[in-house]
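Can't paste images in this forum, so I'm doing it all in text. The chain is below; anyone willing to post the predicted structure tokens underneath?
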Amino acid sequence: MSLIDVIVLAGDRGPDDPLARAAGVPGKTLVPVTGQPMLSRSLRGLADWKRLGRVFLVAPALQSYLDAALASGLGRDRLVMVEPEVSPSASVGRALLAAGEARPLLLTTADHVLIKPDWLDQMLADDSGADLLVGVVDFARVMQRFPQGRRTRYRFSDQSVCGTNLFLFRTGKADSVVVRWRQVEQQRKRPWRIISMLGLGNLARYLSGRLSLTAGFSALSEVLGVRIEARMLDDPLAAVDVDSPSDLALVESVLAEETAGC
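Text version of the structure:
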């Protein structure tokens, strides 16, 4: 069974991030989550994955980030530190260069505190013909699990989905998507603006509830010249990352439930 490299984005707004400022730490991914840095918790989830190869950690060159990474149990021999660029897309581009040509390769974020090996296995579950797989979760399942939660929703004609901050670069061809990502990365909380990349016709279909999930990804593939498919994950927790104090409280409550259930 081949090992899979993973890029983890841990660059953020530094001490200006509201969560970081409240916690008195240099950046959001160092904010304590039930007593442990967010970064340590997310990397521990990766370290538990049997197929994990190297981790390319995009994070500021501060000892506190390295310490948090090593506290996860991840061996130093598998950890490659990558300096952040001016934007997430540029940072991913730099990390892809550092990773070389080995594919498939996973991309996720350090605020994905609840990440589990099973989700990663699902991303690699079959030999899809896609160049890039985008992890999603059914919105109804997320709302069933967290009825009071607020998650970004992409409404398609056949179902609504939430993103998961999980991407599988199956082939080197997928790397070209990073260039176009720069055009939309500031709009990730505004689904209709992202859909507008697909042209006015598809935007109109999306806004009127006539664009299916498959058709949406097919149109995106045509625009980008790369075959992109959605990969549906079965755990609603995969839609939860930490962007706000309410997200932090939610994640800590989930971790408390998991600890109590052990």
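The two ends are 29 Å apart (CA to CA). The first helix runs from residue 18 to 23.
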